């Protein structure tokens, strides 16, 4: 039964809005594969927020800015992600910026979080450093 649930989960569309299924998009990054770009890491982090995967969020946060723990609000539901801008962050870059807008809903209220996030690549791994919320 648990295997069937996992298969259904992997076959659904990825929450990040790429149009691909979770198993082919953010799934491998959530499972520990390195994201090839800062945008892919940002998309996987959005998906982790949707799925409540605090382990992935903490593991992909730069140690210099990482909180000791995360407590996600179960009443906050992320609905849609749009990439607004990208600066560098490619497979051969050391730094990158990804600006996004993420629609949310909480207890009947709705809104959009807009953030310009900074990432660094250390070795083969991209890490989230911080972001400016607009």
Q: What do you see in this structure?
A:
It contains 4 helices and 4 strands; from the N terminus they run H-H-H-H-E-E-E-E. With 134 residues, the chain is an alpha+beta fold. A 4-stranded antiparallel sheet has the order 1-2-3-4, covered by helices on one side. Strand 2 (95-106) and strand 3 form a beta hairpin. The longest helix has 14 residues, at 38-51. The mean pLDDT is 94.
Give the proportion of residues in helices.
25-40%
Give start-end ranges of low-pLDDT stretches. Answer: none
Q: Which strand order spans the largest sheet, edge to edge or round the barrel?
A: 1-2-3-4
In terms of DSSP E residues, the strand content is 35-45%
Overall 3D form: globular
The total of helices stands at 4
Gap between N and C termini: 44 Å
For the largest beta-sheet, the strand count, sense and barrel status come to: 4 strands, antiparallel
Output the structural class: alpha+beta
Average pLDDT, rounded to a whole number, is 94
Give the SSE string: HHHHEEEE
- How many beta-strand elements? 4
Radius of gyration: 15 Å
């Amino acid at each position: 039964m648990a295997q069937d649930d996992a298969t259904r989960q992997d076959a659904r569309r990825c929450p990040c809005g790429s149009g691909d299924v979770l198993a082919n998009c953010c799934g491998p990054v959530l499972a520990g594969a390195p994201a090839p770009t800062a945008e892919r890491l940002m998309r996987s982090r959005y998906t982790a927020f949707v799925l409540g995967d605090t382990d992935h969020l903490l593991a992909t946060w730069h140690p210099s800015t990482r909180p000791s723990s995360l407590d996600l609000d179960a009443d906050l539901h992320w609905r849609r992600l749009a990439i607004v801008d990208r600066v560098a962050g490619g497979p051969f870059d050391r730094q990158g910026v990804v600006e996004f807008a993420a629609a949310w809903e909480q207890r009947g209220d709705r809104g959009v979080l807009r953030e310009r996030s900074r990432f660094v690549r250390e070795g083969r791994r991209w890490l989230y450093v911080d972001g400016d919320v607009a």
